[in-house]
TrEMBL record:
This is SnoaL-like domain-containing protein. SUPFAM superfamilies: NTF2-like (SSF54427). InterPro entries: NTF2-like_dom_sf.
Amino acid sequence: MTDRDTDIDLKQLAERWVAQWNEPDPAERRRLIRELWAEDGYQLMVNPPEEMRAAAARLSVPFPALEIRGHDALAERVGRAYEMFVGTGEFVFVQPGEPVRHAGGAVAVTWEMRSRADDSVAGSGLEVLTFAADGRVRSDHQFVA
């Protein structure tokens, strides 16, 4: 992703980002991941699930950020999120705002997990993405609200 990329590129990036989380077909999900992510790309869950934070607090240690690296691990991560939230028919992931380009080529993408029943927001977060030379996602720092 370079400074010469257009806003249309950012919109397409956000659409592809959300699509990977909502895709029901595992083979298509893997294809989306390979297309979107660099081979050694990684997601860093800056604030991991509450259960992990609570376990760390019980041990009086800081909670660790979780790193998911490479296409196979990312496919497992995205697939599990799909099974837990979208595959149940209860939720869908949406991108509520516009992606924002930041200094150094980083892009911020917001998301919401919405109820299919009443469109209420059940969760939300922010992804801060950086890119490899080929334009695919190199790193994703995920912040879940």
